[in-house]
Amino acid sequence: MPELPEVHALATELDARLRGRVIERLQVVAFPALKTYDPPVEALAGERIAGVARHGKFLDVSTEGGPHLVMHLARAGWVRWRAGAPKTSGRPGSGPLAARLVLDDGSGFDVTEAGTKKSLALYVVRDPAEVPGIARLGPDPLAADFTLERFRGILAEQGRTQLKGVLRDQSVIAGVGNAYSDEILHLARMSPYKPAAMGEEDSAALFDALRTTLADAVARAEGTAATELKAEKKSKLRVHGRFGEPCPVCGRRIEQVILADRTFQYCPGCQTGGRKLSDRVLDRLLK
Description:
This protein is an alpha+beta fold. The protein has 9 helices and 10 strands. The protein has helices at 4-18, 132-135, 148-158, 163-168, 178-188, 200-221, 226-236, 268-271, 280-286; strands at residues 23-28, 49-55, 58-63, 68-72, 77-82, 97-103, 108-113, 121-125, 255-258, 263-266. The strands form 3 sheets. A 4-stranded antiparallel sheet has the order 1-6-7-5, with helices on one face. A 4-stranded antiparallel sheet has the order 2-3-4-8, covered by helices on one side. A two-stranded antiparallel ribbon has the order 9-10. The protein is elongated and about 60 Å long. The relative contact order is 0.13. Residues 281-287 have low confidence and may be disordered.
C-alpha cells in the first residue's frame, strides 16, 4: 500500500508533469471507484491544472477553475504516467485500469488497481475537505507544527490503545500505514502492543523514530521514478515483509502476527524483550 513517502513522491512527480497543463477528459473505467457525482467528471474537461498536492495518503489534483480530482490508491492502486496518446486494449473493466486522465496533447496518466479486491477511490469535488477521508485526517507527522509536545498530547489522549493501531489510524496521525508503522516501532524498539500513554523518555524516542523513518523514506523516494518506488520502498524495509529473516540490528529471527485484514512483522529481540507475540491464526493452526 502506498504510504506517506510514496504518495509524496507521486505528488511531486505529477506536479512537475501536470502543473499548467490542460485536461481534455477524465475517463472512469472502473465505475465503482468513483465516489462522487457532483460535480460530474466532465467538469474537469478544459480546466488548467494548478498543481498536485498530498493530504495524508490522498493525492489531490487541483485546477485553476476549482474542481479537484482526489485519489486514494488503497492497497493495490498506482498511478502510471503516459507520454503519448492511450492505446485501446480489451473491453472496459477487463484489466487493472480504473481511470485515465488525458491532457490536451494526448499525454496523461492511468490510475490502475491490481488484484480482485477493489478499494481504490476517486472523487471529483470543489474542495478536498468534502472527501470524508480527508475531513477526518489527523495531523501530518512531517508538518512543521507537529511537535513533540503535540505528539505527547496525542499519545495521552489514546491512553491504553496499542501503538500499532495508533500509528495506523488516519484520524490520529495522517499518512502512516502497515509497513512504516512496523519500521517506526522497530527503530523505537517498542512492542506493537505497547499502550500509547507513556513516559517522556519513551515518547521522545517514538517521536524521533516516527520523524526519522518518514523523513528518510521521503528523501529516498524524491527523484525516484514512479515505476521504481515500490521496489525502492521494499528494499529499504528492515522488518516489514521480512518474516523469517534475521533482524539487521540484533540478528534475531523476525516474527509476524496475522490478523483478519493484515499481517505485521516485528523483532522479538529488539521490541518485546525476547518474547514472541501471540498469533491467534498460527496458534489455531498448530493446535
